[in-house]
Amino acid sequence: MQTLQQLKNGELKGIKRLKLSEELTEFPLEILELADTLEILDLSHNRLQTLPCELSRLHKLKIAFFSNNLFTTVPTVFRNCENLYMLGFKANQIEVFEEDILPLSISWLILTDNKIKTLPYSMGKLEKLQKCALAGNKIETIPCSMASCVNLELLRLSANDLIEIPTWLLKLPKLSWLAFSGNPCAVKSSAHLECVAYESLAIDRLLGEGASGEIYKANAPTLECDVALKLFKGAVTSDGYAKDEMQAYMATGEHPNLIKVLAKIEEKEHLGLLLELIPSTYINLGFPPDFDTCTRDTFKPHQKLTLGEVKTIASAIASAAQHLHARGLMHGDLYAHNILVDTTAHAYLGDFGAASFYEDNNNLYEKVEVRAFGCLLEDMLSLCDEKEDVGYSKLSVLVDKCMDKEVVKRPCFSEMDL
Asked: Are 118 and 97 within 8 A, CB to CB?
């Protein structure tokens, strides 16, 4: 992170990335002097309410973040930023989103945790839009113009006021990762689970942290075993509400490729789940997408999988997904970074932060998720060198079927030949 003083002193000339967080109440105009080089601008965690119209002079700007500020409207100054493909205004106070204010270059839009009621009809013009995070607003309907967003792959709609998920949305040719829990249209779960008191647990150490909470190793005397304790942060994340995630976990049931849910904590100060403790030999299959991949996972340099490992993992995840959809539960985040594997290629599908309950719509919800599985399978095959094997060709054909642009033509998980 740089400082405002460095900027004013001219010490940052020629930089491509600028991050300032100093309780700013005004946009520092010295930033405009970086117009010939600046590609990434992060002014999150300030107190900004407006941006100058001259911002469009940043002609090389590709990514701009203004999260955790005080904006009440999406600024209109980006229209002429023709290279801008990622824009974030998470956790502001935005109520107004006007028509035709975004450049058509936008592929990644983040407006999580605001107060937006209405999306502009012009959203349909964003044909390059791939990833759109709208959770935690007050949105009542999705404009039908977005049927033209043919490249939209990931959409977060949780914690809004939607009364329906339109069928045309489920038929978008590339939609793969969808979350809509915490809306009036979402089906409510009646799953129940034993409660334990937080104070009864012996907390050992932190195992990991995600968008919705932290995971600790703990001992639960009432269960007579060590457990993984997931404590929720409680705030709205890009995926939705913590209680909706809890309900999804509680409804998963038992499956060899799902981590068993043992009990819950539901107290004023603590909200959490006790999960089966997985051996430390399990590691994440992949890593989340980055700025370059947008919607696709990333992997370790030189990471490899054998064809046998690809088939084993793919079969496990397809089986787990079939189990979930039989319960009317869409995972919503079917990715390699949410899969744990060991050296035998045994896999667990985890992280239900984006999961949503639904009523059957001619298998359309499932077939949206089938495309996510196709992306996963394609990513795993890219790590495999056995491309001449007939089994590789067979899985490649399945990838094509799972990613068919006509959603209704995709196979259900139960119909896959793995």
From this structure: yes
Quick check: 82 pLDDT over 90? yes
Q: Are 232 and 245 a contacting pair, CB within 8 Å?
A: yes
Spatial distance between the Cα atoms of 15 and 129, rounded to a whole number of angstroms:
27
Measured CA to CA, the distance from residue 410 to residue 408 in angstroms comes to 6
**CA–CA separation, 155 vs 132, rounded Å?**
5
Tell me the pLDDT tens digit for each residue of 252-297. Answer: 999 999 999 999 998 888 889 999 999 999 999 999 999 999 999 9
Q: Coil, helix or strand for 142?
A: coil
> Poorest-confidence range of 65-79, 188-202, 324-338, 363-377?
188-202
316-337, pLDDT tens digit by residue?
A: 999 999 999 999 999 999 999 9
- Using CA atoms, how far apart are residues 262 and 222, in angstroms rounded to an integer? 11
How far apart are the C-alpha atoms of 343 and 353, rounded to whole Å?
26
Q: By C-alpha distance, which of 404, 403, 408 is closest to 362? A: 408
Spatial separation of the C-alpha atoms in residues 414 and 397, rounded to whole Å? 16
Distance CA 355, CA 333 (A): 7
Closest CA to 285 of 250, 322, 265, 257: 257
This prediction has a pTM of 0.95
Torsion of CA 242, 278, 335, 208, to 10 degrees: 60
Q: How far is 239 from 155, CA to CA, in rounded Å?
A: 10
Report the C-alpha gap between 104 and 83 in whole angstroms: 9
Q: What domains sit in the chain, N to C, each tagged with a CATH number?
A: 198-276 (3.30.200.20), 283-415 (1.10.510.10)
Which single residue is written with the structure tokens 């399978």? 377
Handedness of CA 36, 38, 39, 43 (dihedral sign): negative
134 three-state secondary structure:
coil
